[in-house]
Amino acid sequence: MKMVDINCDLGESYGIYRMPWDEAVLPLITSANIACGFHAGDPATMRSTVEKAMEHQVAIGAHPGLPDMQGFGRRSMDITPQEAYDMVVYQIGALDAFIRSYGGCMHHVKPHGALYNMAAENMLLAEAIAQAVYDVRPELYLYGLAGSALIESADRIGLRSVSEVFADRTYGSDGKLTPRSHAGAVIGQPEQALAQVLRMVNEGVVVSTEGLAVPLKAETICIHGDGEHALSFAREIRALLEAEGVMLSAAGHA
C-alpha cells in the first residue's frame, strides 16, 4: 500500500489579521507546519495552533522563515549559512516550547518560502539548515523539495528527510518550482491540482510547464494554508487519495 503525508502551512495569522482556513483544514491533513514568528505568526497564534493540531492528532512541525513579515517571507535575502543556522535554531526553540507546554513532541521542520527555495539550490544554506535541525534534535524529520539540496544535505548527515511535492504549484523541467513572480506559478483550478497529485503519487512524475515528465519522490504533499482554495483542495485531495487506496499518515506515524 502506498503511503503519503498531507501537510499544510498553518499558524500564519498575525494579531488581528487572520488566516481563515486553519481550524477547518486540520481534520483533513496529517501534518502541520506552524509559523514561528519571523515571516508570520505570533505567540498567541502559535499556542492556539499547537493546541488545535494536538486535538486533531496532527503531527506538528516548525515552519521557520526569513525575518520579513511585510513580504510574508517570500522575498529572498542575502544571508550567510551561520545566519540561516541561527534563525532555524531560534524558531524551532520557540515553537518547541509551546509544544512541550501541551505535553507534545515536535515531529519535523520545514523551512518556509524564500528560505525553502534558497536552500533547495544553495548547498551551503541547505547544510546549515540541516545541521541546525540535527543539532537541536537529531530524531526530527526535515521536509524539503523533492530532489533538492536540502534533502541531500539531510541524508548526508543522517537526518531523516521527507521529500515534498506541491499540489498547487507548477514545476520547471529542472524539477524546481516555478517562481511565484511568473505567470502560472500557482494552480488555481482544482481539477489540474488533483490530476497533478495523482500522477506524482502513482507514477512518481510531474509534468513541467514545458510539457516534460520530470521524476520526483512524493512522500508528502503540501497545501498552502494561505491559498484561496486551501480548504477545498484539502478536502478533494484527501478524498482522491483515499479513493485510490493510499494510506494517509505523517512519516513514522503509520
Automatic annotation (TrEMBL):
Belongs to the LamB/PxpA family. CDD domains: LamB_YcsF_like. It comes from the Bacteria. Catalyzes the cleavage of 5-oxoproline to form L-glutamate coupled to the hydrolysis of ATP to ADP and inorganic phosphate. One of its GO terms (molecular function) is 5-oxoprolinase (ATP-hydrolyzing) activity. HAMAP family: PxpA. NCBIfam families: PRK05406.1-3 (NF003814), PRK05406.1-5 (NF003816). This is 5-oxoprolinase subunit A. It holds the Pfam family LamB_YcsF. InterPro entries: Glyco_hydro/deAcase_b/a-brl, LamB/YcsF/PxpA-like.
